[in-house]
Amino acid sequence: MQAAIYPGSFDPLTFGHLDIVMRAAKIFDHVTIATLHNREKRGRNLFTLEERLEIIIEATAHIPNVSVESFAGLTAEYARAKGVRVLVRGLRAVSDYEYELQVAHLNRNLNKNLETVFIMAATRYSYVSSTMAKEIATYGGDISKLVPPASLKAIKKKLETHQLQP
Ligand code: PNS
Question: Which of 52, 89, 92, 134 is catalytic?
Answer without folding.
Answer: 92
